[in-house]
What we know:
The longest helix is centred in the C-terminal third of the chain and has 22 residues, at about 450-470. The chain contains 17 helices and 21 strands. The N and C termini lie far apart (about 65 Å). It is an alpha+beta fold and about 475 residues long. Strand 15 and strand 16 form a beta hairpin. It has helices at about 25-35, 100-105, 115-130, 135-140, 150-160, 170, 175-185, 205-215, 230, 265-275, 280-285, 290-295, 300-305, 310-320, 415-420, 425-440, 450-470; strands at about 1-5, 5-10, 15-20, 50-60, 60-70, 80-85, 190-195, 195-200, 220, 240, 250-255, 260, 320-325, 330-335, 340, 345, 355-360, 365-370, 385-390, 395-405, 410. The strands form five sheets. Strands 1-7-8-10-9 form a five-stranded mixed beta sheet, with no helix packed on it.
Amino acid sequence: MSSSNIEFIYQNKIFKIKNADSNETLLNYVRTKLKKTGTKEGCAEGGCGACTVVLGELKNNEINYKAINSCITFLPTLQGKQLIIVEDLISKEGLLHPVQQAMVNYHGSQCGFCTPGFVMSLFSMYKKNSKFKDAEINDSIAGNLCRCTGYQPIIKAAKSLKKKNKLDQFSKNKKQTINLLKKISNKSVVIYYKGKKYFAPRYLAELKKILKKDTDANFLSGGTDLSLVVTKERKDIYSMIYMNSIKELNYIKNNNEYIEVGASTPLIELESYIKKYYPDFTKILKRYGSPQIRNVATIAGNIATASPIGDCLPLLLALNAKVVLQDLKKTKIIFIDDFFISYRKTKLKKGQFIHSIRIPLHKNNTFKAYKVSKRFDDDISSVCGAFNLEIEKNKVRSIRIAYGGMAEIPKRANYCEKIFLNSQITDKIIYKAKKALEKDFKPISDMRASRLYRAEVAKNLLEKFFAEIKQKKLIGVYF
Ligand SMILES: Cc1cc2nc3c(=O)[nH]c(=O)nc-3n(C[C@H](O)[C@H](O)[C@H](O)COP(=O)(O)OP(=O)(O)OC[C@H]3O[C@@H](n4cnc5c(N)ncnc54)[C@H](O)[C@@H]3O)c2cc1C
Ligand code: FES
Ligand code: FES
């Protein structure tokens, strides 16, 4: 069944919007149509967290609470979800939510502009975890900026929540909310409004039917890149297919040879899954944007964007991942090495979409990755390096080295890799390999880093990789 209405849960009721404008942001809807102005607009590009709201989604018969940036979320993507904004946190009796009360108790607000966003990020942490560690506090507010408080009062407020009973009005209403969510979850959406088309199919078969007629439609996944066309470039997007509504594309599986990640799987899920296999993949994802971004952004979106500073890309290149592409008729599997053509250009053809990504499990290898950016949290890489090494009988059997931020596409360091092949690792070889990087890359200067800085950092990361292996005796001592 498909409908031109979208339905979501708000204040424990089903809300309907007829003919939602597919280019309208959720932030705009909340402030101008719901007339709730607690949620603020700071940057309109997902970078400051002032617009944070929480979405409740059904997952294994439970509600999964996700903080998101409403400024870069298109309104129709609300279909089938629960919307919680800062005004909803106060109880019927007029009592502040424990998260709000903690912010008051610890003076977590000064000018107050950032406060609703912080409250919503902490609320989602509070709802997700019965217990949390200090690291989780820092992580959950990594996407919220405050120019006044210096963060310490906010962190103290968050720490005080560790001792709180987690029951609130949302837990009391949970059963009812789950029932309502079930009522509205099984629906595809097709909206033709103001010359714009929006499709939210639920199945791959539906997607393919749409693609038969609309080969020019833009695929919308997390929208953390695509939405900026509207919010920053101030252009309209006339046709969109929302991929994150296709449950068949939201999965992670593993057959002992490779991990397969469905195109619509949010990065936050990959972040916890992959830790066991590649801890450094998780380390990089933890510094990818913010939880608000990773709650919706997908690995497919990262690959299709083909940004030279896309953080997953050098890691996937070093791990020799494959991209599974589909169109109306067939499936094609290509190495990610062959996917990027030139600046933000890929092998994707019209009507072709990314179905999944296969990440091989290199059981005998050492894999490490490093992100260098101006700020630790919520910042784009200046340089990102990934290294995947296999040693046999004290010699390098295989090595894959890839960098982001060093060329117009994320790229492997082919000359550098050759220096290592079949050699023992010695200081001399590392020195030669560092020199070879000068042949591999001619980086540019931009606002993030100068050409010379990038070149130097790339060499240093290579050295760091081997120094860490040596120090931790990760693969025996061969120096
Ligand atoms: C505040 C902020 C911080 C960020 N931080 C980082 C960071 O630290 N590191 C980083 O790498 N990136 C970062 N990004 C960029 C962005 O999050 C990534 O590019 C993200 O992975 C895009 O994924 P998405 O699912 O949101 O894609 P979308 O925005 O939905 O789509 C991006 C592009 O991919 C295409 N696409 C999406 N899904 C498919 C599919 N299945 N098949 C074919 N094409 C598809 C879309 O048509 C579009 O062209 C940040 C962005 C913001 C706004
Ligand atoms: S307004 Fe800054 S993240 Fe949305
Ligand atoms: S209290 Fe003023 S920006 Fe945070």
